Amino acid sequence: MDPLSRRSFLKAAGPAVAAPCFVPRRRRAARPAAVSSANGLVSVEIAVRKMLEGVPPVDAAVLGVEPVENDPDDMTVGYGGLPNADGIVELDSCVMDGRSGLAGAVACLRNIKNPAQVALQVMRRTDHVLMVGEGALQFARMHGFTEENLLTEKARKAWVAWRERLSDKDDWVDPEENGEFGKDFVRTTGTIHVGCVDANGDVGGCTTTSGLAFKIPGRVGDSPLIGCGNYVDNEVGVAGSTGRGEAVIVTNGGHRVVGYMADGKSPTDACLAALRDVVRFTKVQRLLRADGRPDFQVKFYAINKAGEIGSAALYPTRYARATEAGAELADAAALFEG
Predict the structure, then answer these.
(1) Gap between the Cα atoms of 68 and 82, Å rounded
(2) Is 298 exposed, middle or buried (0-12, 13-18, 19+ CB in 10 A)?
């Protein structure tokens, strides 16, 4: 019998079946880990301790940010946060849970000093993701959150100092002495992000802020927007941001960082890649320095499913990180010097 030709052999074998794609299984974290902005040193320590006690990562992140939200001396978050242009404190926050794929957020929330906890209730008790303004406040009241005046005396003085320096064409006068802020008071941005991964490799994240100091009332930054100031993928990791929210919004920064980690980049390299996108999107002259670089700061923070921690910023800064071995501040990678 003549040997089968290659064609007749393939015909006899039946239709070809495509080989299955090989998808590498991502390693679980060997131990819990947490990452945060530099004002979150106590936050990452709390988050890791809570995860060791069995608390889910998203809840651990919310518990981690609570002391910062309650701290009147941190004027970028929660109680004591710098107000909007009308002197009213408006808070934003979001949470995202890797295991369920659910998220919750609040924006322009007034009179409630722990917006991250309200965002967690939005995630757990509604079919929504984002609630804003009066609706968010009514929801918080319904779930037992206590209203209080969030404008501290320190923040009020800062607001007055800003108003007096706002224009030389109005009737406000800049006195020679203006309390502890003096003539060098600078309009600030600030936020806290906490990202967590537990020993099972499950991830969760939380970002909370009082937003840009003296913002136009109703302004919402990246902090309460899923995919911008906070993003979680339980197969990959968690990422978040602080700094100029508008720059993070237009690039969907948190989502980009997680996407870069999914492509195989380390957390730090993923943060740097997302920062390059921020630079690429920054084209308007008023947002650029004389050397053509962005005239603002953006910082990204990330942990992958294996528990590897990283952070990067446009310009040098520090960040907080923790494992069960303890918490520490570390230098973030910087895209630019100076």
Answers:
(1) 14
(2) buried
pLDDT, mean over the chain: 90
Question: Helix, strand, or coil here: 336?
Answer: coil
Q: Can you tell me the distance from the alpha carbon of 247 to that of 228, in angstroms, rounded to the nearest whole number?
A: 9
**Model pTM above 0.90:** no
C-alpha distances in Å from residue 231, one per residue of 16, 227, 237: 41, 5, 9
Q: How confident is the model at residue 165 (pLDDT cuts 50, 70, 90)?
A: confident
- How far apart CA 178 and CA 188 sit, in angstroms, is 18
Domain residue limits, the chain: 27-166+174-333
Q: Which residues belong to the active site?
A: 191
Give CA–CA dist 37/282, Å, rounded.
Answer: 23
Residue whose C-alpha is closest to residue 30's, from 266, 303, 328:
303
d(CA 164, CA 139): 36
pLDDT higher than 60, residue 1? no
Specify burial of residue 36 (Cβ count, 10 A radius: 0-12, 13-18, 19+).
buried
Classify domain 27-166+174-333 at the CATH class level: alpha beta
* Other CB atoms within 10 Å distance of the CB of residue 13: 9
* Residue 169: CA count within 13 A, CB half-sphere: 0
Neighbours of 273 (CB within 10 A): 19
